[in-house]
Amino acid sequence: MPLSDEQRESMKKKRATILTAATDLFATLGFEGTTIKKVSEAANVSFGSVFTYFKDKDALFYAVVVEPIDAFKEEVLSFNPNAVQPVVELKKMIHTHIDLYARLQHYLTIVVQIIGQYHKYPEIFAKLDEFNDEFCERVKILVENGQKKKVLVKQDPMTVATMYTSLLTGLRINTTDSRYSSFWEPFKQSAIHLFGPIEQ
Hints:
Elements: H1 5-33, H2 36-43, H3 47-53, H4 57-66, H5 69-76, H6 86-102, H7 105-116, H8 122-148, H9 157-173, H10 185-191
Helix pairs in contact: 1-2, 1-4, 1-7, 2-3, 6-8, 6-9, 6-10, 8-9
């Protein structure tokens, strides 16, 4: 008998609850310290329920890291690299990115764990690396655009893009401040200087 809409929605919500609990645990306890038992307890579901959605801990870890990438990418890459006013676009981009990264503490903690041990998670690392390459390339184009319009100083665009993406992750990992903290606001003002805007 096929599942009803209500049953499908219930399963979707339970799966999301498991993923949220797993994200928190993988971030705080690491891969080795996280068990399916701990995930089930944190999600308030039965031990067997986790296996309804995920074959094993490896599959759960993969889902925790890889599934959010598409939604994350959509928001991160929403800026226009060919904007008519590159500096205005840079400021909007920085504002969007810092707000986004400020609310992703646990997820980005896991990302940093994977980058630091990329040889242990080659498939997941490849997905993250692919996203990072796309992100850097898009920022690089925006920087080149600004340099062509003579509103940004001449410097290597890919170096600037790499420094910017590294800055975003570093800010999130190096602070425990919440997404609503005023701590984040000054970084929005300071980050623009990385790109070398020329006073008009």
